[in-house]
Amino acid sequence: MHDMSDPMTNALAVAFSSLLLAAVCVSSGGCIAHPEISGKAVVTRDGEELVIDTGGNGTRLVDASGEVAGGCIVPNQGKLGVAVQKEGAAFSFFDMMDESDSPYASVTIDGERYQGACEIIVEDLQGDPYEADVSAGPCDLVRLFDGATVRLETAVFHVSDCSGAD
């Protein structure tokens, strides 16, 4: 895992990289050609189960005309990020970034952001670094300003045609 000696600095770095992935990769599509993303994430908050799903119980691909947007990026060989957004839902945003020194996941629920270190498993498919099955959970995610927690029970996504960058 990563150094937690300065939690605020670490939390801000994680939040910044999450926002950067979301802003660049989900909203503008600038770093993504035409990725294919399907899957779902399940979070519990105070006993309530919340789901963000690309459709068809995680089997439908996100597309530009759908109600669920998504993006993925492979910043370097062996690292992968996935983001999914559903406007108007209580659980409206999910992202995870597999980085060897600080893998993490974050969610936005009712406009509040929760994040935390989370083991992420990436299984490259057919030797293509831009296609993978990606999963995470269970792990706890924390809201920075007051320490409230939610639990990422599971996140399972299939991604392909993710862009790569050096």
In total, the number of strands is 12
Count of distinct structural domains: 1
State the share of residues found in helices, binned by percent: 10-25%
Q: How large a portion of the residues is in β-strands, by DSSP E? A: over 45%
Low-confidence stretches: 1-32
Report the total helices.
Answer: 1
Structural class by helix and strand composition:
mainly beta
On the 0-100 scale, what is the average pLDDT? 78
Over all CA atoms, what is the radius of gyration? 15 Å
Distance between the ends: 23 Å
Topology order in helix (H) and strand (E) letters: HEEEEEEEEEEEE
Shape: globular
Main β sheet profile: 12 strands, mixed
Task: Give your account of this protein's structure.
The chain is mainly β. The protein has 1 helix and 12 strands, in the order H-E-E-E-E-E-E-E-E-E-E-E-E. Strands 1, 2, 3, 4, 5, 6, 7, 8, 9, 10, 11 and 12 form a 12-stranded mixed β-sheet that branches.
Question: Would you kindly provide a brief summary of this structure?
Answer:
This protein has one helix at 7-27; strands spanning 36-45, 48-53, 68-74, 80-86, 91-98, 104-109, 112-117, 120-125, 128-136, 139-143, 149-160, 163-164. The chain is mainly beta.
Topology:
Elements: H1 7-27, E1 36-45, E2 48-53, E3 68-74, E4 80-86, E5 91-98, E6 104-109, E7 112-117, E8 120-125, E9 128-136, E10 139-143, E11 149-160, E12 163-164
Parallel strand pairs: 3-12
Antiparallel strand pairs: 1-2, 1-11, 3-4, 4-5, 5-6, 6-7, 7-10, 8-9, 9-11, 10-11
Protein name: Secreted protein
Keywords: Signal
Signal peptide: 1-22
